[in-house]
Amino acid sequence: MTIIIISEVNLIKDYVELKNNDSVKINLRGWKILDTTPTNQRRHEFIFQKDFFLQPSATVKIWSCAGNNDASNIYQNRSAKIWNNPGDTAELYDADRNLVDKKSVGNPPKGGRGGGAKPPRPPTLAKITISGYANDAECKQPIQNAKLVFQVLKGQKEAETNTDETGYYKTELNGGRDYTVTVSAKNYDDFSDTINTKVGKDMTKNFKLEPNLEIELDVDSAKVKFTRKDDNLINSVRQLAKNGKITVDINSDYVISVSVSVSKGKTKGITPTLIETGYGKTRKLIIPADINCRINEDLKNLVFTFNQINKNWTWHKEDLFGSHSDKTEKTFNYAVELTAAYGNNSFGPQQFPLGKIIVRVNKDKLNAQTAYNALYFVSLAMAIAALIAICIAIPPVGAALAGALSIGVISATSLVAAAGLLGGLSGLTFFATQFFVTTMNDPPKFNTNYRRVQKIKLLPSKKSQPIVAELKNFITIKKALMTCRDKLYSAQRKSDKSATAAQKNNMNHLLKLNDDSTTKLSGAVKKLKINSELKINTNQVKKTMALLRKNKLPIKLVSKKLKKLGLSPKHIKLLFKALTSRKVNDTSLTLNSAVTLMNKSLKNADRSFVSAIKKDVQ
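RESULT FIELD:
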């Protein structure tokens, strides 16, 4: 369709009228109008010398006479008429001398006035084909129904086309001309470029459009799946609701899966972060971003899975000389934070609440853990007190410390023996504590040898240092009870009546041995002979601390002599730490008091241990 047409040639009033049939304004600068009936062998012409924009659907009249120009009228200020023949033909040419339109009125002569020659025909330009694709610049997918407008440089629109479902377009242009092409599509920024065509040569031109769209994400659901192999909840799934809660045991291992949907726009990069808040702490778990192109409806739903949810939860507090049970129930709030991007478009970060998980720990197990920790720390305090006493007994350091502490120099031989005993005792207690705290925190495990009844061998009690032998027996029986627990649990799961009965009998036998062992160990602790002179109060410790801070004690010499006595670097380091710790008090460093505390902790630990064992195999 011709964009600018000659709508009228008026021979009476002597004007020609042009009309813009396009939807955009056209600049007519350089365009010209010619008549085909020359006067005196010369054609009349009118050229638009300056910028003149003809608005969409507007008209302009070019008069031969004089007048004042405006948006709809242009006057040539001629003294004679141009369109005064019985008939005439007007021709309209664009700035590149291409014939745009032609209109005849009346009965124009075939030649010029007086038999003049016909006006020359404008050259016909050869057509070429231009084709290609319009694609998304981010994910390379084709863009359907993209509009391409080709306009002659500084001239009118010549062609317009749209892409198909594959993003492909094809149209014809006049070869040998320069064009401006504008590509536009929904949810994309407009793109413009200049094209140089050559005569007789088809060309291919592809376009990439930058996306310009709004992104929105939603969380559809969140689920908790239990994954521990020995957990009775294995592979079960529970829904985590925004305003709901799930109660689980501390032994349960699980993962949280969050279903996310791209509700608006497209994405190529969703980053999820699981946020856990509770008990005064906030923890974030970030997993790798999803970098897939989420552009189609069947790709706009995805699931993120967060592993190792409960690895940082602790249930008792420890310090240098004590262990304290904490809450048996903790509530954790969960939310997922999402960010997304697609090209220059982004979403978030935005948090979506998921729900609450209440984690509980078995009260008996927690008491057992706390009691065993107390047992270790009490024995550790006893060992520290003995080490301090040894330090006092070493000349010449002993004399300096004795003066500072206002006590007499004590025999080093008995103190070394006591320190060795207590050092070994604390080491054994530490092993027992670590073993029981770790294993009691777990549920029963399946043991493939559940049909086999375990037999144990205990050490005979020694006259010298009987406490060491009794403590080793105490540990051996506890290990056997843990193994028997697992075998009994396994036999029950397999519904093996014979194996279940055998393991129950063995459990009862081991529990009786455990009662006897606890009684013997408690008696051995009571018989532990400690020199009554070893009573170090807080004021004395403060004086020693002052000497240490003023560098009046030869620490290197003391350390060297302590090593010769067979003390480990760990115990020596612990000694100096105790001397400078603000948590050390006279109760902690009085061995007779420590023995009493150890005996009490031993009984509490055993009572809690047995209770937890029985609950595990009910």
